[in-house]
């Protein structure tokens, strides 16, 4: 998807355009954001690209690395001067993130009109078992899986969650259940993970 090797080859061969997009790169969003043109140029000058993308023999790769190390190039003769390193191409403004604090209130799960979920582990099959109940406690669906991400995506695909806070809760609980399976820990919904027998 991102094609990093091809993007690096294109960077050395073609450089970047006015928007700092790597010319000729085919990957998703090949843009060097927040890096000045001077720094990009300096990188292209002082780094030599050795293309070994088609090589799969570890011995050949090790020999290439040893040969490169033996060359012992001297320090780059033209360090980047401060005057050559203007602010990145973002209208001169420093990149800043607005701090936000964690926490908040989650609506009680009973108020999600799509229902609620009960999670357990099936140790024999090494699966997370997720059972969906309607608000009136009627059993509705069962999902079995090995990873939290796939199971959350399945719930969203089936439109079984109507609240963002509920989706966040389910993601956290499923991640705990997945960790418990992988690490041999005890899992109980809404409780901290603990060691087996602890």
- Write down the secondary-structure element order: HHHEEEHHEE
Low-confidence stretches: none
- Counting structural domains, the number is 2
The rough form would be described as elongated
Largest pleated sheet:
3 strands, antiparallel
Order of neighbouring strands in the sheet with most strands? 1-2-3
Mean pLDDT: 86
Helical/strand content category: alpha+beta
Q: Round the Cα radius of gyration to an integer and report it.
A: 26 Å
Gap between N and C termini: 44 Å
Helix content: 25-40%
Amount of beta strand: 5-15%
Please tally the β strands and state the result: 5
- Number of helices, counting only DSSP H or I runs of 4 residues or more: 5
């Amino acid at each position: 998807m991102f094609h990093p090797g091809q993007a690096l080859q294109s960077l050395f061969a073609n450089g970047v355009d006015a928007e700092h997009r790597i010319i000729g790169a085919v990957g998703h969003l090949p843009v060097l954001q927040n890096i000045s043109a001077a720094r990009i140029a300096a990188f292209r000058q002082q780094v030599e690209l050795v293309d070994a993308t088609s090589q799969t023999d570890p011995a050949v790769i090790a020999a290439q690395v040893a040969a490169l190390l033996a060359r012992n190039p001297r320090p780059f003769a033209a360090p980047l001067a401060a005057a050559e390193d203007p602010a990145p191409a973002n209208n001169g403004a420093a990149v800043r993130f607005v701090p936000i604090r964690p926490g908040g209130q989650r609506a009680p799960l009973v108020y999600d009109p799509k229902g609620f979920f009960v999670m357990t582990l099936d140790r024999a099959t090494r699966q997370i078992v997720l059972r969906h109940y309607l608000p009136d406690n009627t059993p509705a669906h069962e999902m079995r899986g090995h990873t939290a991400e796939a199971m959350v995506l399945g719930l969203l695909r089936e439109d079984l969650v109507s609240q963002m806070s509920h989706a966040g809760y389910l993601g956290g609980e499923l991640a705990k259940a997945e960790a418990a399976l992988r690490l041999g820990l005890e899992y109980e919904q809404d409780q901290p993970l603990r060691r087996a027998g602890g």
